Amino acid sequence: MAENVFEAVKQSVSTREAAEFYGIEVKRNGMACCPFHDDKNPSMKLNKEYFYCFGCGATGDVIDLTARLYNLSPKEAAEKLAQDFGMIYDSQAPPRRKYVRQKTEAQLFWEDRQRCYRVLSDYYYLLKKWEADNSPRTPEEEPHPRFVEAIQKKTYVEYLLDLFLYESEEEQKAWIADHTAEIIHLERRLKIMAENKPTNRERLREITDGIEQGIKELFESEKYMRYLSVMSRFHRYSVNNTMLIYMQKPDATLVAGYNKWKDQFERHVKKGEHGITIIAPTPYKKKIEEQKLDPDTKAPILDQDGKIVTEEKEIEIPMFRPVKVFDVSQTDGKPLPELASSLSGNVPNYEAFMEALRRSAPVPITFEAMAADMDGYFSADHQKIAIRQGMSEVQTVSAAVHEIAHSKLHDPKKYEVLPSWKVVLESEGGTKHDFKLDFATEREAEQFASDMDWRYVDENQFEWRLAVEEDPTAEKQAIKNRHTEEVEAESISYAVCKYFGIETGENSFGYIASWSQGKELKELRASLETINKTSGTLISDIERHYKEICKERGIDPNAKAEPETAPIEQPADAPKDTLTYYAAECMEFPNLGEYHDNLSLEEAIRIYQEIPAERMNGIKGIGFELKDGSDYEEPFPILTGQTIDLDTIQAIDYYRDNPLVQKAVKDLAEAMPEMEVLGADDNQQEALFLIDDATYLHIQPCDSGWDYTLYDAASMKEMDGGQLDMPELSRMKAVFQICDDNDLDSTSLRHASLSMIETLQEAAYQQMQAEASQMATSSQLPEAQEQALDEYPMPDEQVSTPDMLKYGYSYDGMLPVTRERALELDAAGLTVYVLHEDNTESMVFDPQEIMEHGGLFGVDREEWEKSPQFHEKVMERQEHQQEREQAFLSQNRDCFAIYQVKHTDELRDIRYEGMDWLRSIGQTVKRENYDLVYTAPLEPCKSPQVAAEQLYNQFNNDHPADYHHPSMSVSDIVAIRQDGKVSCHYCDSVGFTQIPGFLPQNPLKNAEMTVEDDYGMIDGIINNGTKEPTVAELEQQARSGQPIFLMDLADAVHREEREKKKSVVDQLKSQPKAEHKKTAPKKSAEREI
Length: 1089
Hints:
The protein is an alpha+beta fold. 39% of the residues lie in helices and 18% in strands. A hairpin with a 5-residue loop joins strand 17 and strand 18. The longest helix has 33 residues, at 521-553. Residues 92-101, 338-345, 560-574, 778-785, 1013-1020 and 1060-1089 have low confidence and may be disordered.
């Protein structure tokens, strides 16, 4: 009989013969240089049946060798060998059974050892290179992070390399078992390094280096003026971002991100425009385990065995990354709203503006006669500002702002309250970096470090210790010479006047360049930060007070008329007091992310709900801005996150007595009843919520906490219910806890009318009647629904290939993902592509590109199948043995399942052994000794025996990508479901042997046995043991308020029906209808009444 090509090749050609034929030089001892990695010394062993490389771990038979050499499939490689060696074979002949060689534990350990040694070696040489290339050039230079990493890690890696060279196998195995995940992460990181793809940390370093160089070159009069002009337009930005905008686009006036221009302003970025790079905060959350402490004693809580109880805590780690923004001049679209016209010329409304300066100054402002060479002064002793009389309006305003800056910054009496503590990062080698500055007390700094568990993990996953130190630079900040004070005050005056359109001239900055010579970068940066922060605060104060004064005096701030010389009386028809709402993406720092003001209540709620929950700029919320000419016209928060803070508002007398504020809070609470109200009595009332438009939650207080019931919104069926024994929780916190316990999405929560509860309870009552009637007429388990076989693990379950085709992209080598999943896979090191609707794609190099794209993304199928994420999804199947077997047995189509002996030491003697061997040692094939490893639909074939042979060939030579188990071999079992019948076939030394009884004939009976309480009653009815209460007894329990089980009631009805008693429907109809306010029982795995 002619042979199959695979067996013909394996029997005729050895791996050594094939290697020599294809140009690999094999030495007499069978060793050769491995062609699959850069091998200078022979590390590949070849014998007749297989090859193995001790360097890279490559192994296989003669077909595998040829396939890897020429990048062929197993079948193509076998055909190439047959052709090259002149063999004749029958392409249709079935393969004869032959023992499939499996790797021994020694071989597997050797592969793991070689992999670890290779990764650590590559890392060691990389560390040496970093140490040489990035060493500091001067003692004062801050060490490069890679230099720090090299110093910290090199000695430890040397120790590990010695461990793999000289220590025992037991020590090596133990280390590999404990550090497999770290090796995988390090291998992935080395691969990224080899591709020269810069990390966010490196890009940030590049940007900040540019900022520092820019600061050094900044202090030339012309450049400095342009910088101050930019700073006046972006006074809410940090020094770094102001510097970046100045360096890239000095004429910028209003910047925003790509999506913000599109979504908020209805404008689009012009084609070909280059974004302005700034640094944005992107904190991420990390879960840590820590000791659970007693709230009173602060001592660790112990369990019943005396062990310390731990709890999971989520911490937020501050990080930053570069992002792109665009100036308004780079966009087209809907015109922007008109801004209030700035002050210009000879200072229109001069008296009103000067009054605004007086209210913004920390000390009184007076006018005096002075020498012509002096415009004004600030007296720290008398705590006043004096301005020279008789100057022009512009000179007067400029001098006043200059002296206000002195009074805010250079008052010696305020120096003692400057912050003097900081938190630093500390490495194992003793290297330190500032992490968080400006703590007023040591206790505040320690509290901050404690909240972060005294450690910080950076972007490269290196862990730093946190330490608290006194900040020696804080005292230096107080000791400034007269020249530094003048530069700061004059710069602030120039920036503030520039913002309000008052041209002061630039004559006073001639000495800036000479002042900056010889000063350290740290001192220059400190002055810029002082100027930036003080200018921003002063601009906001003056603007607020100027609006108040204009309103008090009936002045139109936008009018072009000549300024009034004296205040005018307020007319009778002056605008009434008003209140508007605002919505912010970050309530703590409104300049981070979206901010909308002058809104109605409906607009504020709509914008709040549209801000995505996954944004990480901060906690979103809603506030109000009172416009009544008082000192309380600043924005004030009402709703932060999910909480309306009524307590804080009521604590402020002015707000407590103001009807506009009280109405605003009341209206918001009524419009968003799902929010928790701090300080309100409504938290203890009954309520009904609709979750994700799919589930109703009815909650009401009870003695032990909160009683709740869940209903399906579509069918109005009662789904679950119980009691939450946490009386200390407010109503909304209880709702969130119930959502978490039941895997419900609490972000899509809204209030529903209480009148709906009666409808839901009526529907649940009718449901109970129908289910009880159905149980009374059927004694058999319901027929199991067909479940799914093993499916190919997609990278994103939210989107499918048909969705991608509908989108307009059709390349079958790409798998679609959504934006959220694309960000996760990009962070994990996979290559992500932007998919375009014209059937093209582009590679992602920056996460910002993902944020800016509004369509689908993709990952390469081949790269996905090699990723750890794909392997994890495949191996997750092993945790669902019973469900997958049930799915296989309940299929209505032809399918197959593969079982393999469990990998335990106890079953070593039966793994890879034939049936004859099992019989000789008195063993039989048992289901409990096997794992179900794969299920799939079956291709059409003549018989189960033919199907088994075809599967053997497939799972040895071309198995599916989502099959991550050893090739099919002796001792494996193939279960075939064909034409409704299941047969099991043992993979024997030669052919297959059918084994009856391996799987249960009745899957419903098997399912019953897994949950039956009384194992003597396996009859198709679950849990029908010796407890047999009557219907009357169950009815009495229900009336007395005790919970009863629906299954018990159905069983009692079934028994009494046989005895010709009343039907269960009649009994239920005779019961009174459920009260409106019910107390639900504890949650249970079975449905209770």
